[in-house]
Design a protein that fits this description.
Helix 3 runs parallel beside helix 4 and helix 4 packs across helix 5. It contains five helices and six strands; from the N terminus they run βαββαβαβαβα. It starts with a strand and ends in a 16-residue tail after the last helix. Strand 5, helix 4 and strand 6 form a beta-alpha-beta unit. The protein is α/β, with parallel strands linked by helices and about 170 residues long.
Length: about 170
C-alpha cells in the first residue's frame, strides 16, 4: 500500500509531478510480485484551503479528474485504488462532522473515473477507524458503515469492488 498524495502530484490544477509516483510504480514492477494498492487523498491547497490536515475538495470533479489521471497513467500497473482515508473521522473531513452521504458520492464518482481509465483496477472504500466517539469528532464505525451503505442505496455495485474469492 502506497500513498499518492494528491497535493504532491497535482501541484497546480491540471499540472502534475509524476516523478515520485513513477519511481514507486517502476520499483513495484521491477520486483515483480508486488501488487500496488494506492491510497488517494490529501487534497492540495488549491482544491480546498483551510483544512488543518485533509478534507474533500470544494469541487468533487477536481478529485475525480485527479484519480482518473492517476488510473490512466498507471493503467494495468496498479492493482487497486483506495478512495480517501478513514472518512468517519472529522480530521479526515476538514475538521467537520463526517458525512457518509458525501463520502458515498466521492466514492461513486471516483469509481467511475478510475474504471473509465483502467477497467481492470480494483476500487476500494477507505478503511473506517474503530471509534466509539460521536459526531462532530467522529462516527462509530458500525454507525458510519450503516449510514454509508444506506447512502449508496444499499449496494456496492458502481461504488467499489468486492474482493474476488476463489471458487
Amino acid at each position: 500500500k502506497q500513498m499518492f498524495s494528491w497535493r504532491d502530484i497535482e501541484t497546480e490544477k491540471g499540472k502534475f509531478d509524476w516523478s515520485k509516483a513513477d519511481h514507486i510504480v517502476r520499483k513495484a514492477i521491477e520486483y515483480q510480485d508486488i501488487h500496488l494498492l494506492i491510497r488517494l487523498d490529501f487534497q492540495p491547497e488549491w482544491a480546498r484551503s483551510g483544512c488543518s490536515d485533509q478534507g474533500p475538495p470544494n469541487d468533487p470533479q477536481d478529485y475525480f479528474n485527479y484519480v482518473g489521471a492517476v488510473a490512466a497513467r498507471y493503467r494495468g500497473q496498479v492493482a487497486a485504488y483506495q478512495i480517501w482515508n478513514e472518512p468517519n473521522l472529522a480530521r479526515e473531513w476538514c475538521d467537520q462532522a463526517p458525512d457518509p452521504a458525501a463520502y458515498a458520492a466521492l466514492l461513486k464518482g471516483s469509481y467511475a473515473a478510475i474504471k473509465a481509465a483502467d477497467p481492470t483496477a480494483y476500487v476500494i472504500s477507505a478503511g473506517i477507524s474503530p471509534t466509539g466517539t460521536q459526531p462532530p469528532e467522529a462516527y462509530p464505525d458500525d454507525d458510519y458503515l450503516d449510514r454509508l451503505y444506506t447512502a449508496m442505496g444499499g449496494r456496492s455495485t458502481g461504488n467499489f469492488d468486492l474482493p474476488r474469492v476463489p471458487a
